[in-house]
Amino acid sequence: MSTEAQRECSKCSGPLDTSGYPLWCGACRKTYKKEYESTRETLNAARGFRQGVEGTKTVLAGEFEQFGHSSFTGQEIGQIIRNAPGPSFDADAPAKD
Ligand SMILES: [Zn+2]
Question: Considering only CA atoms, which of 20, 23, 19 is closest in space to residue 3?
Fold first, then answer.
C-alpha cells in the first residue's frame, strides 16, 4: 500500500492522522509518545544511577588509598564510608550507556 493511498493507521487500522509521521492514528501516536517518554525517563534514571555508583566508588577508593597499608576494623571501615564526601555532580560528564 502506498503512503498516499493509506487511510488507516498502520498499527491499529484506526482513522489516520495525516498531520505527521509515522502514519498512525492520534491514539497510537499518543500511546507511543507516552511509552517513549517513560522509557527515556527510565534510561536517564539508570544513567544517573550508574554515574552515581561510579562516582561513589571513585570517592571511596580515594578515601582508603590515602591510608596506604593500614588495617581497619569493620566499624572503622563503616565510619570512613559514612564520613566520606559524596560524589559531585558533573552535568558535563559524557554519558556512558
Ligand atoms: Zn492507531
Answer: 23
Residues with CB under 5 A from ligand 1 (ion): 9, 11-12, 14, 24-25, 28
| Cell numbers representing residue 79 in the block | 565510619
- 75-92: per-residue pLDDT in tens? 999 999 999 999 888 778
Q: How far is the CA of 45 from the centre of ligand 1 (A)?
A: 29
DSSP for the chain, written as a single string: --TTT--B-TTT--B--TTSSSS--HHHHHHHHHHHHHHHHHHHHHHHHHHHHHHHHHHHHHHHHTTTT----HHHHHHHHHHSPPPPP-TTSPP--
pTM above 0.70, yes or no: no
